[in-house]
Design goal:
The chain is of the alpha/beta class. It folds into 2 domains: 6-125 and 291-303, Nucleotidyltransferase, domain 5 (2-Layer Sandwich), CATH 3.30.420; 138-284, 2-Layer Sandwich (Nucleotidyltransferase, domain 5), CATH 3.30.420. The protein has 8 helices and 14 strands. The longest helix has 24 residues, at 223-246. The chain is globular and about 55 Å long. The relative contact order is 0.15.
Length: 304
């Protein structure tokens, strides 16, 4: 006998990994449903679709095995992307999917119900939506999130609604903001951390070093590593300072794997934003792993 429980397959699509889980309508992650697979973001269309098919099939099989009702499939996806139509428009990663109808392709995966809801949402927007619903932005009508990873993302809300452009991406982007001899993403992303660490430490060869390594060294009180995170915090504060004032942001969150080292950026970030009177909270997200998945679920529920 089938369960009356409705379950939702949520997927966080990254350049390195596809992270998925099956969630209840209330946002609970069902035990044993979480799955991670490598993301062939620079591969061919067939290679990418094979990875998507594997992730989606696993999730739907889990729902079927537990005798639950599939309520929808949602994907958090980096941009640019036409989120309403389900068409990627990226020319860096997932280049082979440019202009491709991804929604239609997912419906063609064996085992995907022809009437199931399929929704797409920008990954930074998803993180913020998840944190507004069940995270550290709960209770703040105007909140913002900075996502730190291979790239640099930003999203903000107004009256609890995440603000989007005409394609469904973030209304305001910060990665291309001018900074020194380049753009902000050159200084506040994976490559930015490595660049700054190299300058501070004097180590010209950073090949093989990950930002998580610098984070571990900072935890161990390595001064160069601590200074690296502090400098990125200062750079971020100076770059978003006026945006936060203009959008009357009350809560600013940091997300992405790099935000695990938030404590090493916290002081310089708060110091650089101390005069932003509307800002009442600065912290990391509550759930680095699940915020985007919760936001995906929220999107499915709102748009269904």
């Amino acid at each position: 006998m089938a369960s009356s429980t409705t379950a939702y397959l949520t997927i966080d699509v990254g350049g390195t990994y596809l992270k998925s889980a099956v969630l209840s309508q209330q946002g609970m992650v069902f035990h044993g449903s979480a799955f991670m697979a490598k993301s062939p973001s620079c591969g061919s269309r067939d290679e990418i679709m094979l990875a998507f098919a594997d992730t989606i099939t696993r999730g739907l099989e889990y729902i079927e095995e537990k005798r639950m009702k599939p309520g929808g499939i949602g994907l958090a996806f980096p941009g640019p992307f036409d989120y309403a139509k389900g068409i990627p428009l990226m020319e860096h990663k997932f280049r082979s999917l440019y202009g491709f109808n991804l929604r239609e392709a997912i419906y063609n995966i064996q085992g995907v119900p022809p009437t199931i809801l399929i929704r797409f949402i920008h990954d930074a927007n998803a993180v913020l939506a998840g944190e507004i619903w069940k995270g550290n932005a709960e209770g703040f009508n105007n909140a913002a999130v900075i996502t730190l990873g291979t790239g640099l993302g930003f999203a903000f809300s107004e009256n609890w609604i995440v603000q989007c452009n005409n394609l469904g991406g973030p209304l305001v982007t910060i990665f291309k903001l001018p900074y020194k001899d380049g753009i902000l993403e050159d200084y506040a992303s994976k490559r930015g951390f490595l660049k700054i660490y190299s300058e501070i430490s004097g180590k010209t060869d950073t090949e093989g070093i990950k930002v998580s390594d610098i984070g571990k060294w900072a935890d161990g009180q390595d001064k160069n590593s601590i200074r690296t995170f502090s400098e990125v915090g200062r750079i971020l504060a100076s770059s978003v300072h006026d945006i936060l004032i203009g959008k009357n942001i009350q809560c600013l969150l940091l997300a992405g794997q790099i935000s695990r080292s938030f404590s090493h950026m916290e002081e310089s970030l708060k110091q650089g934003l101390h005069d932003v009177e509307c800002l009442r909270k600065i912290s990391a997200v509550k759930s680095i792993e699940n915020a985007a998945l919760l936001g995906v679920l929220r999107s499915i529920n709102y748009l269904s």
